């Protein structure tokens, strides 16, 4: 059974939340996920800057 993700350094940019977490292999990953209802946007990145850029340029289609 996989361990749950433990997010840290969570910030909100508009409707998108950006957070950092460790993978099960101990590697830092950064995620950006839209919290708007019906949007469904989420992506993982190797760089924090890439995740924040995705959050700043995201436009909900819903």
UniProtKB/TrEMBL annotation:
InterPro entries: SpdB. It holds the Pfam family SpdB. It comes from the Bacteria. This is SpdB2 protein. It comes from Streptomyces gougerotii. The lineage of its organism: Bacteria, Bacillati, Actinomycetota, Actinomycetes, Kitasatosporales.
């Amino acid at each position: 059974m996989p361990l749950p993700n433990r997010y840290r350094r969570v910030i909100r940019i508009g409707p998108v939340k950006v957070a950092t977490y460790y993978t099960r292999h101990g590697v830092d990953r950064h995620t950006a996920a839209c919290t708007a209802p019906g949007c469904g946007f989420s992506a993982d990145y190797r760089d924090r800057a890439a995740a924040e850029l995705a959050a700043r340029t995201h436009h909900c289609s819903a």
